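Suppose you are handed only these lines of text.
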Amino acid sequence: MIDKWFRKNKVDRSSIDDRVNELKKRGVPAHVAIIMDGNGRWAKRRALPRVAGHREGMNTIKRTTKIASALGVEAITLYAFSTENWKRPRKEVEFLMKLPKELLHTYLPELIEQNVRVEMIGHREGLPAHTLESIDYAIEQTKQNDGLILNFAMNYGGRAELLEATKAVAKKVAAGDYSVDAIDESLFERELMTTHLPDPDLLIRTSGEVRLSNFLLWQLAYAEFIFTDVLWPDFTEAHFLDAVEEFQRRDRRFGSVEGKAHI
Ligand code: IPE
Ligand code: IPE
Ligand code: MG
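From them, the structure of the protein bound to IPE can be written out as follows.
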């Protein structure tokens, strides 16, 4: 199944395969969060409209899903539309809202075949009904799958998520479900949109920007960050494997002194 896909997409399967096998021997990140950035610049460099970059970026989503699955990653969360992206020109926003349908219409059978489970985080309110319909349909059709979780962050904002969680906790305190003193990290995390997922081990941002842009502010507390200049439409399987390899070289101490780099 995977072989067929790599052949169709003319990827040198043997070298990818070897690298996947090598990387699998060392710890693979369970959850990879990705800020898919640089679509607009990719298009501009080709004198194309910005939306051409967004369309091309869908191929990268397919590549990334495939390689993450092959590696045995449990979940990838893709930042597809932020709560701040409403500031973009209306035409671009409309295009972005139609992309889930465009992507999933043709891609869903492949996702089902690959045992991928589609999920979404973000604020449903504000998203057009047709956008939610396409995503919900994919979620429904793949909910039995137990392979990679392909989690789209759509109309997502870290601060809004934290405010929502805080309100939910406050309401439960007011209702007498638990006391203020009982509030701890695990209780708070239950109110986050990612409550069923492990925290991301690795964050990748493409396009050279070095910021979080309001992505997963709580969950990325101890993630390893990898920023690459490659624009999202140009991001390949090899780039993903490079990031995982770099991740494996990092010394994650979580505040302790154990590990390679202590003195
Ligand atoms: C990322 O690419 C896609 C979204 C934010 C939806 P951009 O559209 O931000 O591309 P640049 O940063 O303008 O190149
Ligand atoms: C972050 O990219 C949001 C997504 C990738 C969906 P932006 O391009 O919107 O972020 P800024 O404006 O550079 O911070
Ligand atoms: Mg951008």
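What can we learn from it? The radius of gyration is 19 Å. Residues 37 surround magnesium ion (ligand 3) (CB under 6 Å).
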